[in-house]
Amino acid sequence: MAQKHWLMLLRTPGVGSKTFLKCLAHCSPEALFAAPRESLLQLGLSTKIIDSLKNPRWDLIETDLSWLAQENNHAILWADANYPQQLKEIPDPPPILFARGDLDLMHFPQIAIVGSRNPSSTGLQIAYDFAQSLASSGFTITSGLALGIDAASHKGALNVQGATIAVTGTGLDRVYPAAHKDLATDIVATGLILSEFPPGTLAKANHFPRRNRIISGLCMGLLVVEAAKKSGSLITARMALEQNRDVFAIPGSIYNPLARGCNALIRDGAKLVETTQDILEELAPHINDRPLPQAITKTEQSNDLPEEQQNLLNHIQFSPTFIDQLVLTTKLTVDNISSHLLILELQGYISPTHGGGYQRNK
To answer: What would the pLDDT profile of 249-276 be if each residue is shown by its tens digit?
Structure first.
C-alpha cells in the first residue's frame, strides 16, 4: 500500500473525508492518481480536484513523511487492519488517523468524558474521580486534551496507571493548548494521542467539532460532567446519540449555568449519573468480566472532622450556600462559621463561589 498516495490525497485541495471515502469505494489512492481524467469525472470530482490529482504537489507531504520517520509516530489508514472498527461505524470517519503512543488502546473499551473548559472545582473533582474509577475498571478514558474537564479526566486515568486517549484538533507535532505540553507527554508515554489532521496543522475553530465526532465515535459511552446549554460538549453528546452510543450526564443545580446542558441532556433521554456504578451497570459486559471497582458515592461522610465542622459541612450544599443561611441553620456565630469555613476550604471539602458563597466538593 503506497502510504504516500494516501497522504497526498489527504492534502489535495477540495478533498475532505467524505470525498476521500467516496474515492476509496472505487479504487485505491494510488490508482486514483494514475486514473485518466474521464474516469475521475465519472466519480463526480470537480475539475479543481482533478487538476490537483493530475499535478500533485509531492513537496506538501514531506512534513508528514519526516514526522512519520520519528519513533512512535504512526499513520493508520482506513484500509489498515488496525483501523478502529468503532470509528468505521460513524457517518463521516477520518480516512487517516495520525497517532503517537500505544495503538492497541484504540481497540479497548472506551468511555469518553467531556465538559466545560471553565468548570467549577466540583466539576473538576467529579471528572477526575470518575476517570480514576472507570480506568481502574478496565475502561480507556477518551477526551480532547482541552482545559478543564478534559484535562481532569486524562489526569484521573493516569493517576491510577490507567489507559487514556487524547483526540486533538491540531497536527500531532504541536500541543494545543500549549499549557498541556507536559500532560501530552505523559499521555504518549503510556497512552495514545490521535488526530485526523496532518503534522503542521494549527488550531482552528472548525477543527474541534470534527475532533468531537472522533471522540464520540471511538467510545461506547460518553459522560458529560458540566456543560452550558450551548457548548461543544453538547455537540459531542448529540454526535454520540446519532452514532448510537450511550450518553450519561451528571445532574446539577438549576441555579448553576454549567449544569443546564447536563440537565437538558437528561430531560432529552441521557442517563442520569450519580455514581460510577450507574455507568458500570450499563457497560460492565464490555470489560471482559473484570471485577467492578467500588463506585464513587454522591456524598461521603467525613468522619475524621471534628463534630462542629462536620455539622457545618452537612449544611453546605453542592450548590452555592451563603454565610447568612449557615447562621440561621447552624446557630453558630459568623466568626465561628468563618473560621471553620477556612479550615474546610483548605482541606478541600468546600470551594468559594461567585458572590461570596461556598459549595461542597465532597
So the answer is: 999 888 888 899 999 999 999 999 999 8
- What one-character DSSP code corresponds to residue 59? G
Measured between alpha carbons, how far is 75 from 83 in angstroms, rounded to an integer?
A: 10
Whether pTM > 0.85 for this model: the answer is no
232-242 and 260-267 are packed helices; what angle lies between their axes, rounded to 10 degrees? Answer: 20
* Angle at alpha carbon of residue 287, lines to 141 and 238, rounded to 5°: 50
Q: How many Cα atoms are found within 13 Å in the side-chain-facing hemisphere of 209?
A: 8
Using H for helix, E for strand and C for coil, what is the string for 162-177?
A: CCEEEECCCCCCCCCC
CA dihedral sign, ordered 264, 219, 362, 121: negative
Q: Collapse the DSSP code of 57 into the 3-class scheme (helix H, G, I; strand E, B; otherwise coil) and give the result.
A: coil
Which segments in the chain show pLDDT lower than 70?
Answer: 1, 285-303
Q: Please report the pLDDT score of residue 292 as a whole number.
A: 41
How far does the chain reach from its first CA to its final CA, in angstroms? 54
Grid cell in block for residue 194: 490521535
pLDDT for the residue numbered 287: 58
Residue 166 and residue 144 in contact, taking contact as beta carbons nearer than 8 Å = yes
H helical segments located in 55-120: 62-68, 85-88
Question: Phi then psi for 140, rounded to 5 degrees?
Answer: -85, 130
Distance separating alpha carbons of residues 167 and 110, to the nearest angstrom = 13
Residues 182-211: pLDDT tens digits? 999 999 999 999 999 999 999 999 999 999
Q: Which one-letter amino acid corresponds to residue 129? A: D
Give the start-end residues of each E strand in the chain.
Answer: 73-77, 96-101, 110-114, 140-143, 164-167, 192-195, 221-224, 246-249, 271-272, 350-352, 358-360
Q: 11, 23, 6: which is closest to 57 by C-alpha?
A: 11
Is there a contact between 245 and 216 (Cβ–Cβ < 8 Å)?
A: yes
